[in-house]
Amino acid sequence: MRKTGSKMDLSKHFIKLGCAPINWTNDDLPELGGELTFQQCLSEMALAGFSGSEIGNKYPTDIETLAYECDIRNMQICNQWFSCEFTTQPEEETLQRFEELTDFLYALGARVVGVCETGQTIQGDITKKMFDDAPVLTEEQFDKIAAGLNKMGEIAQRKGMKIGYHYHMGTGVQSMEEFDKLMSKVDKSLVGVLYDTGHATFAGEDAVEVLRKYIDQVVHIHFKDVRSHILQRVKDKKLSFLQAVKEGIYTVPGDGDMVDWDSIFEIISASNYQGWIVIEAEQDPAIANPLEYAKKARTFITEKTGL
User: Fold this and answer.
1) Counting Cβ atoms within 10 Å, is residue 303 exposed (0-12), middle (13-18) or buried (19+)?
2) Contact indicator for 260, 207 with CB cutoff of 8 Å
């Protein structure tokens, strides 16, 4: 459970703070925040005190326009989700899409890409029960994903970038047993970790132990907390991932009750981590005002870390 304690000074670390637009307008559930523009997302991130943004599906796809909109708000693009489909599509199709995305992101200043295998995922299917229907990948599928990730890592390195694998609910790589298996098969010099407090907690893992194990491989960080009473409801009612999000499974640091933030900050402080920490706590913006929650997260992190 969440602890409270003395302030942990992270101000001397080379860490920047950003937000994900999914807190405003949800790519998986377009009806959540469907009326909000990407300009509002960027403006309110900046207003809340953040300096970076990940890319959502409402963001412009041409470099010049997006760079301009970021620049006038003193914002920087730091990452974009990339869906791998090594288990269902020819490898070269995923690699070609990835090559195009790295060029786009690099031009905007991002140096990390968060990647996730979605070939078997149920995360976007509201009819699939989160725990009962989650895919179970075969050894052959794990091998295919690992081989593809290594090739993506080579492409990224060649362009001065890194990839971080994003374990994610509903994808077949959500438990730490599954994530450990995948990471044991990749070249760790090519494939890093996108550490996510919320997905580890939702999966039933201890987010602190996950970070402690993988901190030296972490290249990007997502912060969100989990509401324990909603998690119990998801289990009791056998809800889907999308239903869980609509119910409010996730919230920002400083608002939930399941992540031990003091221990998280202690591990980061003792590490050599340099990069972004991104608030990615998707909620229904009609219920949880995105600006209000972004400011709450920013205040909490400042109070705890000095960032």
Assistant:
1) exposed
2) yes
Structure confidence at residue 1 as a pLDDT band (50, 70, 90): very low
Q: Which residue, among 275, 281, 283, has the nearest Cα to 297 in the 3D structure?
A: 281
Separation of CA 119 from chain center: 18
Task: Please count the structural domains in the chain.
Answer: 1
Domain of 126: which CATH number? 3.20.20.150
Expressed as residue numbers, the domain containing 118 is: 15-285
Mean pLDDT of the chain: 95
What's the average model confidence in pLDDT over 235-251?
95
pTM more than 0.85? yes
Contact 259, 206 (CB under 8 A): no
Determine the length of the chain: 307
Residue 96 has what DSSP assignment? H
Residue 52 lies in a domain: yes
Give the pLDDT of residue 4. 46
User: Which tens digits make up the pLDDT trace of 35-66?
Assistant: 889 999 999 999 999 999 999 989 999 999 99
User: What pLDDT, on the 0 to 100 scale, is given for residue 6?
Assistant: 52
Do residues 175 and 151 make contact, with C-beta atoms less than 8 angstroms apart? no
Would you say residue 186 has pLDDT above 70?
A: yes
CA R_g for the chain = 18
231, part of any domain:
yes
Residue 229 within any structural domain of the chain: yes
Strands (E) across 24-80 are located at 52-54, 76-79
Cβ neighbors of 37 (< 8 A, separation 6 or more) are 58
